[in-house]
Amino acid sequence: MKPFGYVRAGSLREATGAYAAHPDPRYLGGGTNLVDLMKLGVETPATLIDISRLPLDAVEERSGGGLRLGATARNSDVAAHPLVRTRYPLVARALLAGASGQLRNIATTGGNLLQRTRCPYFQDVSKACNKRRPGTGCAARDGVHREHAVLGHSAHCIATHPSDLAVALAALDADIELYGGGDGDAGDGTGATGGIRTVAAQSFHRLPGDHPEQDTVIRPGEILTAVLLPAPVPGAVSLYRKARDRASYAFALASVAAVLDLDPATGRVRHVALAFGGLAHRPWRATTAEQELTGAVLDTGTVRRAVDAELDRARPLRDNAHKVVLARNLARDALATLAELAATSRRAP
Ligand SMILES: Cc1cc2nc3c(=O)[nH]c(=O)nc-3n(C[C@H](O)[C@H](O)[C@H](O)COP(=O)(O)OP(=O)(O)OC[C@H]3O[C@@H](n4cnc5c(N)ncnc54)[C@H](O)[C@@H]3O)c2cc1C
Ligand code: SF4
């Protein structure tokens, strides 16, 4: 590991100021991804700006029934929070499906969404990788790519995004709050510029295109300050399912986050949201399937056709066609389970 400087920020303004003042800086959340990458020589920052102790660790009610998850809230604390568990069970399930208890105790909300890909060639500095060093090539394309993308990949990169939380957020139409990259007032009463902006969670992560080195739309120096969850759809049921090589401590081969609301009078779909993880460079919101399902009665044939319409767009590579099969089965099963749950909750006194 190369020597590096360390600054502990006491406020958002101090953090963005330190970022601007130091060469080659990185923000430090829990460090469970960044420090690992520094040990491997993939990340070589000159200065770490520790933002983990900023007072951004609360889970708070928003007006209108939503929740605000602070960026430095630990994954374990968010997953265990009573309001998260009761109103957004798929967020709690997604977090608990990730990493291990020890990692979740230190990993933060912001860091989880900004963690880098687990592509082994990205993590090996002796291998060509356009994400790590733009223009050098992609060793995974002709290498071992059993765990790589089947949707939305480009000639330049076939990596997947690893966060489970991000998939749940995409299905919930959450927003991401960012500080420090805009031109307006910083909003901290100091008159400093910096600005706060929000970005829809489903547009926060990028497809690789020609620039796989840019994982998200975050601007240099911006801090992710919170996740904003909208009020849950009344009466809707939801779940998160993940297929992986081991029962725990493994990234998704494919995962699905689903939300469903059925009209109690007709049994038809009033609202459905479906997002896949492990298939692409970002959570994959299944808008084609959602369109097919909205207004329909959820029988086996309708579900099959809708899921197929979405996943027929997949472009699997030599070694990863199994991911399409996994995703199809996960989505069909998730929708069937939710339809049953919705019917049961309608019958309940
Ligand atoms: C063995 C192992 C298994 C894992 N399995 C899973 C899994 O199955 N599913 C899953 O979702 N995750 C998994 N993880 C990933 C783990 O959840 C992440 O390492 C963790 O969430 C990163 O959070 P952190 O706070 O430690 O981030 P850090 O390592 O501190 O930061 C990660 C990146 O985000 C930046 N950053 C951090 N916070 C902010 C912020 N607020 N604003 C701007 N930039 C910021 C940092 O500069 C860095 O680039 C696994 C990790 C390991 C080591
Ligand atoms: S898939 Fe992406 S991250 Fe992996 S080696 Fe290729 S360019 Fe790098």
UniProtKB/TrEMBL annotation:
Keyword Hydrolase: no
InterPro entries in alphabetical order: CO_DH_flav_C (IPR005107), CO_DH_flav_C_dom_sf (IPR036683), Diverse_Substr_Oxidored (IPR051312), FAD-bd_PCMH (IPR016166), FAD-bd_PCMH-like_sf (IPR036318), FAD-bd_PCMH_sub1 (IPR016167), FAD-bd_PCMH_sub2 (IPR016169), Mopterin_DH_FAD-bd (IPR002346)
Record-linked Gene3D superfamilies: 3.30.465.10, CO dehydrogenase flavoprotein, C-terminal domain, Uridine Diphospho-n-acetylenolpyruvylglucosamine Reductase, domain 2
Keyword Oxidoreductase tagged: yes
Domain FAD-binding PCMH-type: 1-234
Keywords, ordered alphabetically: Oxidoreductase
Classification via PROSITE patterns: FAD_PCMH (PS51387)
Pfam families recorded: CO_deh_flav_C (PF03450), FAD_binding_5 (PF00941)
Protein name: Xanthine dehydrogenase family protein subunit M
Annotated source species: Streptomyces erythrochromogenes
Highest classification ranks of the organism: Bacteria, Bacillati, Actinomycetota, Actinomycetes, Kitasatosporales
